[in-house]
Write a structure and sequence with these properties.
The structure holds 2 protein chains of 2 kinds.
Chain A (H helix, E strand, L loop, with lengths): L11 H20 L10 E7 L2 E6 L11 E4 L10 E3 L2 E2 H7 L4 E5 L12 H20 L4 E6 L1 H12 L4 E7 L9 H6 L7 H7 L2 E2 L2 H8 L3 H15 L7 H12 L4 E2 H13 L9 E2 L2 E2 L9 E6 L7 H4 L1 H5 L5 E6 L5 H4 L7 H11 L2
Parallel strand pairs in A: 3-6, 3-7, 7-8, 8-13, 13-14
Antiparallel strand pairs in A: 1-2, 2-6, 4-5, 9-10, 11-12
Chain B lengths: L2 H6 L4 H24 L2 H31 L5 H40 L1
The chains are: A alpha/beta, B mainly alpha.
């Protein structure tokens, strides 16, 4: 046994190992922009302006009667529901025998500064629904809305109840009386929404993105890289999976000015949907008008759409069949996280089958 | 390697950071959440945003004036063209809707006449 009191600093072995890992980390982050995402085969069946309606290709005929219409948020890329093989809600639904359609709102440009939520709900969604009716020969469909897409799906169902057989809401904020940190950030006397939309025809995606990340800044700005560093030492770590998720998180979409303004003023600040004062194209939008079965899904650790903003729907809709599922996890994690395939997806699949 | 050698080995810098992070992450997050949930933070960030927007607006206006002087189309000019195209697309869609309505009415009428 030899004894030594010599201290080497820096330790060459640890230094090289850290150096290798730092390079792996840089490669993982920089390569994320090209991570393959949204790979489930699909065909374009309708388009309007930047919006695209896709139908996912099935290996055979659908085994369920009711087509599923996925309505995505305006501020995120649509591939979150079809992230990558094995981590795709869309792939799951197609595999379960559903005829799946998805509306991707695309990237608005300066020419879309006047595009508001009313236009999306009264001009885009009805036509997309009609395209689904034509493609399938079915008069009704299940509308499944995620986040802001859930609010759009709710408004659409309230105005066009005849087209919707079921409504599924995935972490959809609808009641902003207690909207948590987002509600405080966008309060009428604090947030300069008019100045923002007057300056930018489309609100840069970084604005809502930074807002979301500030809800948990340590975890989002430090923890993400901390966890990556740790996991890079694990030979079983799925780097491509991490890259796909990192790409989505940082792939923000600009928000058309008028839609952003309407979302902040009419939904967050004036809470019109919950107060039964929302109108679109002079038509009242009332939760009580929704009479179809409703499944409301909330996430236990959701800071973007806290439970107080999502739970209203089950009590206020006119439907006799309205239920809520609370899933352990965060706003995005419950949809594509490691447990999504064992928890959220099968539960939605069972509910849809029972309501087919 | 002897125990003494192991003990004298310099610690991995990341390991120290990881322990620090694990021990304090929740406390840091809670402190930040409390600070950012305050009205003062909201007012301050609102003012910061207003200032940035005023600066951005000034840059945009200067650029527009410059491009107009140079007889070069501005972003607004191009956006206006885009708006016209989007408006035309909406008109075509409305015509399509009306045609669909007429076809539907004819089908219903034929159906009634056939029964």
């Amino acid at each position: 046994v030899t004894t030594s009191t010599r201290v080497t600093w820096p330790d060459p072995e640890s230094l090289w190992s850290s150096n290798d890992r730092a390079l792996d980390m840089a490669r993982a982050i920089l390569g994320s922009a090209d991570a393959p995402v949204g790979l489930t085969p699909k065909e374009l069946i309708w388009r309007k302006n930047k919006a695209r309606l896709y139908r996912y290709v099935r290996p055979g005929p659908a085994t369920h009667q009711t087509p599923v219409f996925l309505i995505l948020p305006l501020i995120n890329r649509a591939y979150i529901l079809d992230l990558r093989p094995g981590a795709s809600f869309v792939e799951f639904l197609v595999g379960e025998g559903f005829d799946v359609f998805l509306i991707d709102w695309g990237t608005p440009g300066d020419e879309d500064r006047g595009l508001d939520i009313t236009t999306l709900v009264t001009r885009y969604l009805p036509r997309a629904a009609k395209a689904i009716q034509k493609a399938t020969g079915k008069d009704q469909m299940t509308a499944l809305g995620y986040c802001i897409g859930g609010a759009l799906a709710t408004c659409f169902t309230a105005i066009h109840p005849e087209a919707i057989r079921n409504l599924v809401l995935l972490t959809a904020p609808l009641d902003f009386a207690d909207a948590g940190q987002f509600g405080r950030m966008t309060a009428r006397d604090i947030f300069p929404v008019d100045q923002l939309t007057a300056t930018f025809p489309t609100v840069p995606g970084q604005v809502p993105d930074i807002g979301s990340k500030l809800l948990n800044p340590i975890a989002n700005y430090v923890g993400t890289y901390q966890r990556l560093w740790e996991r890079l030492g694990d030979p079983d770590f799925d780097v491509q999976g991490w890259q796909a998720m990192y790409r989505w998180v940082n792939d923000s979409v600009p928000f058309a000015g008028a839609a952003f303004r309407q979302w902040i003023v009419e939904f967050y600040q004036e809470n019109r949907l919950a107060r039964d004062t929302l109108e679109m194209d002079e038509k009242p939008v009332r939760l009580a008008s929704i009479r179809c079965p409703v499944l409301n899904i909330a996430a236990s650790r959701d800071q973007i759409a806290p439970r107080a903003t999502t739970s209203i729907v089950t009590n206020r809709v006119g439907s006799e069949d309205a239920s809520e599922i609370l899933i352990e996890g965060g706003h995005v994690g419950i949809v594509v996280g490691r447990t999504a395939s064992q928890n959220l997806w099968p539960r939605v699949g069972i509910w849809l089958t029972e309501h087919d | 390697m002897s125990k003494t050698e192991e003990a004298s080995r310099p610690p991995d810098a990341f390991e120290i950071w990881r322990q620090l992070y694990d021990a304090n992450e929740q406390a840091w997050s809670a402190a930040l959440e409390q600070a950012m949930g305050s009205r003062e933070f909201g007012e301050s960030s609102g003012k910061l945003l207003e200032t940035l927007l005023a600066a951005q607006k000034s840059v945009r206006e200067s650029m527009r004036t410059y491009l107009e002087t140079m007889n070069v189309p501005t972003r607004e000019d191009i956006a206006r063209l885009g708006e016209l195209v989007v408006g035309l697309e909406e008109k075509v869609d409305q015509l399509g809707d009306r045609l669909d309505g007429i076809e539907e009415a004819l089908r219903t009428k034929r159906g009634k006449a056939g029964t």
